[in-house]
């Protein structure tokens, strides 16, 4: 793992440079928007990555809560698998298929549904207990960073194209609320330093995830100004643009994975340091009073 | 440990609480074992209402606070203009949302004194009954606030519903519950954090956005009389059902976390 | 041509955000490593 990290970083850097070259010089210029449309190659992959990370945060938090008891652990696992299977079959049932909005293919719905148990079980295989909590924290924090990129590049694109920086439409507002929810999650983690923080944070993550569909539908009534989803939407995208978009998406996913692994290691190290400090102060108090007094300012200042 | 004990000690006002304590509950607890879920909920709720009735601290603070909001907002735009009707819905709910923070913050803080919350933790009473009692207590408090403030709003902003006014009642009930159920839950959650008074709005407001959006929209539609507020009422109802279920399901985890 | 300015701004902003975050991670990492070393000495 430690030796893989530099190799993976170099590969990611190379991929990002290649993706940048593709986005600036290879992708065709859009007819009506012109050069500014190239922001899209950073904006859209960042959005996908952010949503994926928030999704991982939710599944990791859910699993963290469910793992508290063996009965809930089993129940949660089977519920998630059932959701995946149902979601994979349902879009192919004619009655449901006719209800799907235009442009939303049954195959994409089924793939998304199957991703839920797949990610859930993968997370469960490689992470347990404290590691699950660390994964949730990592995913939320990196997700907020990517979501910030989305929220910053969006208005920069909107200004020349729409003539306004911001509009309260469906996607913009949902993304902003998503960002707010996960920032409040990080604030809770920052402000709460008891041993039960992971549990409280996991509960908040579940609440936030439950809130997202409601946010989406509550803003649904407003007229939407955002360009319709390009992927699986109108299908009017140039295949060359699509290729560049996917390359950029791959590059940014690699960057996200890289940053996540770094953040995860940082969190691990942080907890090791805290544990060692706690142990030290415990041992220090057992020794002579003068010695423990001498150590006290050090262990306080390091927090 | 007997179940009646936390009820006796709750509030920290031992002398006053002698009569506040529900004698029938302590008797059933001793004679027949566990009292029912609803009698537990009721005894906690009655205790809270009695405490609030004696001091009226929270209620007075909330009423005065929302009065200030009304007056201050009236300086930022002309309250008699026809447009004011369009934003009155937002104004009313924002005032109630901010004011309800006062009630929500003191919900659990009161129980920290004399380790009453620890007594709740070790008592065999189901945590959900405690949560339900607290949420219902806050619901009653905010409803009273709304009942007092609504006439003032109508007078100050010259409001007159152009749509079906009776629909404001289900909207108000659902909206109040939406604010209160999550508020009570997050107040319990922020109990163990640093500077918990400020933590509550930071946690509550982002999650409440869809509820606020639909309660404001529903009120606006009814006041303006344009279209039907059905969609927003359904959304509020969904919000209430989803988060009541989630809160009841996860409250035990939060209560036992310290 | 004005739109190129916006394009550059967006790309610069993206890397500024990522760079700041990665920089802060590196700083924290170095700090904790240092603390670990100090504790190991004692």
Describe the structure.
The complex is a heterotrimer of chains A (303), B (258) and C (42). Chain A has helices spanning 4-26, 40-66, 70-89, 94-97, 106-126, 130-162, 170-191, 197-220, 230-234, 239-286, 289-301. Chain A is 79% helix and 0% strand. Chain A is globular and about 70 Å long. The longest helix of chain A has 48 residues, at 239-286. Chain A has a domain at 4-27 and 35-67 and 128-226 and 236-267. Chain B is an all-alpha fold and 258 residues long. Chain B has one domain. Chain B has helices at residues 4-9, 14-20, 23-32, 37-55, 57-76, 84-112, 116-122, 127-156, 168-189, 196-224, 230-256. Chain B starts with a helix and ends with a helix. Mean pLDDT of chain B is 81; it is low at 1-31. Chain C is mainly α and 42 residues long. Chain C contains 1 helix and no strands. Chain C has one helix at residues 2-41. The model of chain C has no long low-confidence stretch (mean pLDDT 87). Classes of the chains: A mainly alpha (303), B mainly alpha (258), C mainly alpha (42). Chain A binds chain B through residues 65, 68, 177, 180-181, 183-184, 187-188, 191-194, 196, 199-200, 203-204, 206-208, 210-211, 214-215, 217-219, 221, and chain B through 182, 185, 189-190, 192-195, 199, 202-203, 205-207, 209-211, 213-214, 217, 231-232, 235, 238-239, 242-243, 246, 250, 253-254, 257-258.
Brief summary:
The complex is a heterotrimer of chains A (303), B (258) and C (42). Chain B is mostly helical.
